[in-house]
Amino acid sequence: MVCVNDGEEVLFPSPGYPIYESMAKFLNLTATPYEYVEKNGGWGLDIEVLEKLVTPKTKAIIVNNFQNPVGVAHTRAEMEALAAFAVKHDLFVMSDDPYYQIVFSDFDKSDFVHIAALPGMADRTICAYTYSKSFAMTGWRLGAVLGPQAIVDAVTKINTNDEACTTHFIQKAGVTALTHPDAKKFTKDMVAELEGRRDLLAKELSTVPGFVPLIPKATFYMMVNVTGAMELAGTDDLEVFRRGVLKETGVSFCTRAHFGTPLAGESQRYVRFAFSGVTKADIEATGAALRPYFEGLKK
């Protein structure tokens, strides 16, 4: 609302958080998706493809490092390429950073840089942060926006007229989350627990016929390539597949279709598992339910 005008274009990641696309369309913008591709058992960007999407009406790009649903953790080289792309085409960058602190030990933190810290980016980057993930304050709706003063002033004006202010006790809880040693320990312990769940989920799903888990280095989501499993189930429809698995096994998951309009030419099929609100016993039970069902389909 403060960076892009009616009828202009914004680039957004797909698969990605679905509100990117729906909000752009609600504001009468052209929402143009850019894709992630499988790389080395995880996900990455193809900058050359991104270049082909730019038009004279493109004014902004949404960047979501440590991303829902794919769990991508961008390397410094990828962030530098995105920054150079934004500078080249004079784009605003909306950096959505909700999972900034939920990063696992196999991500090389020395290879990390925030896009706003790169040359030419401070005056064109708007960073959005929430307490929802790192401090498990999801329902409290507390966050912050950082960026150029003119942009922040406009955001403040909209926010003041939209919701007035955040409840005082929630503001105080946010200060405690940022400053209290126990809060920092909570986040550290939570991330360690999530990493254990991630590893167990990958182990369980890798034993299910037709399931190929893609290991996230951040967040608490795992995308799984189920192209082979859908062939076993005799369908190429993700929703039919999802409903069938739920009915036969009791296992629930989202599909790629929940995370933005699919791009033309997509040939692989994906589902997303969340491992935030489950126990390790739940994860083991998931594998125990899925394995016999898909092993039976092979016969």
Tell me what the structure shows:
- With 299 residues, this protein is of the alpha/beta class.
- It contains 9 helices and 11 strands.
- The chain has helices at 19-26, 47-51, 76-88, 149-163, 168-179, 181-205, 227-233, 238-249, 280-298; strands spanning 9-14, 30-39, 42-45, 58-63, 92-96, 125-130, 143-146, 212-214, 221-225, 254-255, 270-274.
- Strands 3-2-1-4-5-6-7 form a 7-stranded mixed β-sheet. The protein has a 4-stranded antiparallel β-sheet with strand order 8-9-11-10, covered by helices on one side.
- The model has no long low-confidence stretch (mean pLDDT 93).
- Pfam families: Aminotran_1_2.
- It comes from Porphyra umbilicalis (Purple laver).
Radius of gyration: 20 Å
Mean pLDDT: 93
| SSE run | EHEEHEHEEEHHHEEHHEEH
- Count of folded domains: 2
The separation of the N and C termini measures 55 Å
SSE diagram, text form:
Elements: E1 9-14, H1 19-26, E2 30-39, E3 42-45, H2 47-51, E4 58-63, H3 76-88, E5 92-96, E6 125-130, E7 143-146, H4 149-163, H5 168-179, H6 181-205, E8 212-214, E9 221-225, H7 227-233, H8 238-249, E10 254-255, E11 270-274, H9 280-298
Parallel strand pairs: 1-2, 1-4, 4-5, 5-6
Antiparallel strand pairs: 2-3, 6-7, 8-9, 9-11, 10-11
Key features of this structure:
alpha/beta; 11 strands; Aspartate Aminotransferase, domain 1; 9 helices; four-stranded antiparallel sheet; Aspartate Aminotransferase, domain 2
